[in-house]
Design a protein that fits this description.
three-stranded antiparallel beta sheet, 98 residues, alpha+beta, 3 strands, single chain
Amino acid sequence: MILHTLHAQHGGAARNGVLLRSLPGISKKMLVQTLREMEESGLIDRHVESTVPPAVEYSLTPLGRRFVDLVETVYAWGRANADALDQLQARATSRRNR
């Protein structure tokens, strides 16, 4: 979702707060944790501007841009097949059944 949002909504770069507002349902903690993991994986870069308070911007790396095509294909498939996804049955061991 973060790769898709960075690419499709923000032209490849966005600040932390902008991303948080663009991803409904994600907590600040989960967003920060995921951004750190993506940075360690080489999918995004983190740039800190020396302002008060510090402004942090995340941008897609060349590797991250290579993954965007795949992510966009999955998003398009999901939109085209939303009815099929809605018909999926929860497994007996699924947390959704608890």
